[in-house]
Amino acid sequence: MARDLNDDHINVNAIAPGPFKSKIPAPMYASEEIERRELANFPMKRWGALEDAAGLTTLLASRAGAYMTGQVIPCDGGATTIG
Predict the structure, then answer these.
(1) N or C terminus of the chain: which is more exposed, having fewer CB within 10 Å?
(2) Per-residue confidence of the chain (83 residues) as pLDDT tens digits?
(3) Is there a contact between 3 and 61 (Cβ–Cβ < 8 Å)?
């Protein structure tokens, strides 16, 4: 898609979100004990915040991200590093 839209000067990127506190991972924080255990496995030891994804979105929409296209960028607090 990035290649197809390049001639129209459209950059195509994707954000791959990790552990954000939402309805989807709700079982991971069903109780404080389960939440503590799950967060202990995350490198940053916290849930992602909307501001975390917003910062990356701002980068991609700004001049600073103008030379980025065809990328899938994890926004996961390092969760992809734990294998």
Answers:
(1) C
(2) 999 999 999 999 999 998 887 777 677 677 888 888 888 988 999 999 989 999 999 999 999 999 999 999 999 999 889 87
(3) no
Rounded CA separation 30/72 (Å) = 30
Buried b (16+ CB within 10 A) or exposed e, 35-59: eeebbeebeeeebbeeebeeebeee
Q: Are strands 13-17 and 71-75 parallel, antiparallel or unpaired?
A: parallel
Number of structural domains in the chain = 1
CATH code at position 7: 3.40.50.720
